Amino acid sequence: MTVNFEQVFAFLQQWHIALPIVLAVMAAFFFAGHRWAALYVGLMPLINWSFGAVETYPIPEAFGGGAFQPLAIVTGLVLVVRDFAQREMKHWVWGAMLTGLALSMLTSWIVVVFASAAAFLISETVDWAVYTFWKRPLSQRIMVSSTLSAPLDQMVFIWLASQIPGQEGIFAWGTILTGIASKLAGAAVVSRIVAAQEQKRAPDSEMNPA
To answer: What are the tens digits of pLDDT across the range 132-188?
Structure first.
């Protein structure tokens, strides 16, 4: 018996089928004690879904052209969430990334998933290296890893996505730069919150040295 994969994907991509699957996988991570990883694997299909579903706004040619994607800031946050997920899972965070990409096939075009996979693989490798080998406070690692990975993530994804028929015009500096700025804005907010928490804990550490 021949399996028609197009029909299988079409069936699985129905929202009333895809959503329960995504939520069930998130619940499995959550109840296994990996709460940040649960959020991480849930954000990835959401981001990829938004590429084709959320309305974009044109950017004037004077500012680089292209279009602004309002949910680009969520992509910045997912890079930060990955850092917290690595604290929970260590190097097993790569498994969470692959799970998130697999779930993305339920919410977006397969070509978008491949573009996303390539972008995530590059940016996540940078994030992983900074988080693993740069022994600085978490707030600093969040900002540095995002500063290095966000431009790579945005440029690789937009370039690969522009190869999709009908999407050739999306590779524009306006799209790239606003996407990078949105991602870094999200990372900066989280970094400042974490830094404030670190400062609050510092007096306790001085009074009660390990």
So the answer is: 788 788 888 888 888 888 888 888 888 887 776 666 566 788 888 888 888 888 888
Residues contacting residue 145 through CB under 8 Å, at least 6 positions apart = 79, 83, 126, 127, 130, 131
Output DSSP code: residue 57.
E
Distance CA 139, CA 210 (A): 21
DSSP-derived pairing of the beta strands 57-58 and 67-68: antiparallel
CA distance 65 to 53: 20
Distance separating alpha carbons of residues 135 and 113, to the nearest angstrom: 33
Question: 178 lies in which domain range?
Answer: 5-207
DSSP 8: H
Question: How many folded domains does the chain comprise?
Answer: 1
- What gap in Å lies between CA 181 and CA 192, rounded to an integer? 16
Angle at CA of residue 49, ends 127 and 25, nearest 5°: 70
pLDDT digits (tens, 9 = 90+) for 87-118: 888 888 889 989 998 998 888 877 778 888 88
